[in-house]
Structure formats: structure tokens, C-alpha cells
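It would be a great kindness if you could assist me with a short task in structural biology. A protein sequence and the C-alpha cells that stand for its backbone fold form the material at issue. I should value your view on which stretches of the chain appear to form regular backbone elements. The record follows directly beneath this note.
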Amino acid sequence: MNRGIMKVGVLMLPLFFILTWGEAHAQAKPVGPSITLKISHQWPAGTIDKGDFRDRLCRLFAKKVEERTGGSLKFEIYPASALFKPVPQYDAMLKGALDMSVYPLDYAAGKIPQLSITLMPCVVKDHYQAMRWKDAPIGKAIEKLCDDNGMKILTWAWCGGGLAAKTKPLIRPDDLKGIKIRAAGKMFEKMLHEGAGAGISSMPSTEIYFALQTGVLDACMTSSSSFESFRLYEQVKYYTSPRITTTWYMFEPLVISMITWKKLSPEQQKIMMEVGKELEKFALEEAVKDDTEVTDLFKAKGVIVHDLTLEELKLWTEVAKKTAWKEYTEKVKGGKELLDMALAVK
């Protein structure tokens, strides 16, 4: 009896391998036209397993989409501003010179002022609330703004940010009087300059290290991931951590040029949207992890760390209401409606 079963099993093995090969071959069948897409971002290069999570997001996305499209879509990844400088990536996507980017949407606020809502002081309290924007009216409004202005969001990703300084801890608004700071975003610049008396110097995160080193800056605000990736602990003595809460959350999604999007087959578009959505769990988990890991790293490097409290956040919120929120609702078309939608997400 056992010998008979073994004989049947041996006879079935070729059929098993044929079926398995056939299934794998079917999965690998190219879907749509063969295209190589360029993905650009400003953060240092890593691998799928190590490095800035925004670079890893690109690599994971590329791998999964290439597999599922049977190789019809391939990707070239250009980290560290190797292809385009940070802010001009939007213009490059508009022209079709760049296919994709992990792009902080506030960088495009000079041309689309409404996108300042994606880096508005004191509107978001934690990463989970930020991700709830996606399915709320504010999320749909942001997605439409992007679609109408030449780029489509594939993966929602937010970064929390801290505040670091060279000469003294910066915790409450009155601590910033006379400080030269990189704030990132017009609304933060409005709040810190008019509400806290700071001097503002605008630049992408790639330039912060040198500016701190040369005395152009006394302090900076940027994402937790950038604090680590650019080794800013080498230039500061004090760090106000976003581990509990923070004034600074920035929407930095993976986006695709609408020019490129329209070149894809419906099947390719469907796969890209599915993979993009799947990777949102990764982006959320890594962003949350970064807030703690970077805080621990700064402590280990001898930087004096303070965790911003909810009570301290209230002080900042009052300043934000009188400056950034006021500016946005009064000067930006549709600004009041967008701010109200953002504040409605709990």
C-alpha cells in the first residue's frame, strides 16, 4: 500500500512542477507597455532593508510593481538629489521629465498655495491622526488638488518633525526670539517669525547641516528621518523630540507625474495603486519608529533631549491660530474650508 502511494506520488511530481511553472510563468507575463520609470528623492541612498524609510519606500515599491507587472514596468531610483534638486522635482513631473518622487507637497505651495495645509503648524497631533486624513474629506480634497495640478498620490506617507538648536533648548514660543532657524514651509515661517520672533532662513533639508556648521542657522525644524539621515546630531546640542507630540507633521507621499500615469495601461495603473496602498502600513510604522529611534540616537550622541508635552503644544497652537492659520484662511483661496476639514479629523 505504501509502495503504491509512493509510486503515485512520484508520478505526480512532474505534473506538480508543470503546474507550478505554469502558474509562475502566468504571473510573470508582462502587463501593458514596457516602460522604465525614474524615481527621484532628496534623502541618502539605502537598501530595501536599511536606511531612510523614504528611500526604502521607493525600493520596495519598485520591486513589487516590477514583479506584478511581469517586468513591463522597471524603475531607476535617484536618491540624494542626484537627478533633480528637492523643490524643482514638481516642475520636472509637470513637464514629464521626471516620472515619480517621494515629494513633500508643501514644496509645491508656491504654485499651489492650498498645499500648505500639508505642513500646517499644530493641526496634526500624531501619525495616526495624520493617516486618517486619507479617507476624510480633507484627504479627498488634497488628492483632487494633486490630480488637477499634474501629480497623483500613490502612497500616503507622513513624517513627524522635531526642533534642534546649537545654543539653548527651544521648547516654548518665547524661546525662539532672535534665533536664526530653518522652519520649512511658509506657514511655519509665518508662525515662528511673527509669533515667536525668530529669524527665518529657507532651504531644503539637504542644506541644513552646512548651514548649522557655518553659522547661517542657530536651529532647525525637519523630519525625524532627516535628523538621522543628515547626521544633524553632529551640529546641535539640544533637541525637542516629537516622540509624544509635535507642532510639525509633513505629508511626503510617493507621487507620479500625470503625464507618466496616462502612458500606463489600466492594468499597470491598478497594480501601482494596489502596491502604493499596501505600503502605507510600512510608511506609518517606520515614521512612528523613527521618532523614537532618532530621539534615542541623539541622546546617545550626547544631545540634551526634551519631549514636547501636550501642554506645551497648546502654547504653540495659540500662536499658530493667530499667525499661520489666520494667514492661510484669509490669503489662500479655499483655505478656510481646507483648514476646517483638517481640524475635523480627530
Remarks:
- The first strand starts at residue 35 and ends at 40.
- Confidence is low (pLDDT under 50) at residues 1-26.
- DSSP finds 14 helices and twelve strands in the chain.
- The radius of gyration is 23 Å.
